[in-house]
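Notes, p. 3: input format for complexes.
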Amino acid sequence: MSEQYFLKTIQRICCFGYHDVTDHPETSGFQNPSAFVYKHTTRHFDSDLKAIADSGHPCVTIKNVHQRETETEAVVMLSFDDGGLSAVNIADTLEQYQMRGHFFIVTSLIGTSTFLNREQILELHRRGHVIGTHTHTHPTPFFRNSDSTLVEEWTKSIAVLEDILQEKMVFGAVPGGDVNDRVFRSARDAGLQCLFISDPSYTLRRYDDRLTIVKRIMPKNNWSSAEIAGFSRFQPRPLFQLQWKRNTKYFVKRLFGPLLPAVLKLRNIKFFRNG
Ligand SMILES: [Zn+2]
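Output follows (275 residues plus zinc ion):
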């Protein structure tokens, strides 16, 4: 097993999990209402990137992190879920800042109207961006699927991406927000070495010798670039607030269980997200 993707020397990591960046959200990615809160305008995203560049922390990828002097460093990473068409423009923008991103692809949607095709995925890979799996069909909540479905979702998707890139696929991101031990096990058993999840944190987690967990902050389109700056400077307060909010939601979800969506709909509160 390769050790190269384990980020042993990194002390702190601020990994953002964006989705689409486009001024025409109907042209890229998922089109369900809950997906739109994660679609950023180009201007907003550019302002976020300026804030990240000004943080003074290097923006790296999981592949090039070991090429840098990172012994005691804190690093920023950028990731983009779903594989919407806007990834092409996102890559152009990142490259203006000498940054590279991680693009997680829902492989059953490759080549459909608002998602990347095979050539575009290969082109991103050639330009130094990291491609990873975001499962084959993006079934959420992911952890509710059977063990065999979990593994099958990864393995099918890995096979598609390996065929496109002609390279071993070891990176993945979990669709939706919630994870549990079965999700980690399925990713590891499918051969992934690094799994990106949507729990906000500045610290990495090792699941076991074969799998590293990268925790992410998932920006919504109503977050200011000042907030993004705070995270990319590793300020403790905004992270604590985000964790508190997330934990409260989790607690309420557990408490009310399946009734909660109906209750929230009744009160017209947009509480859930589709990561
Ligand atoms: Zn997703």
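The chain has a mean pLDDT of 90.
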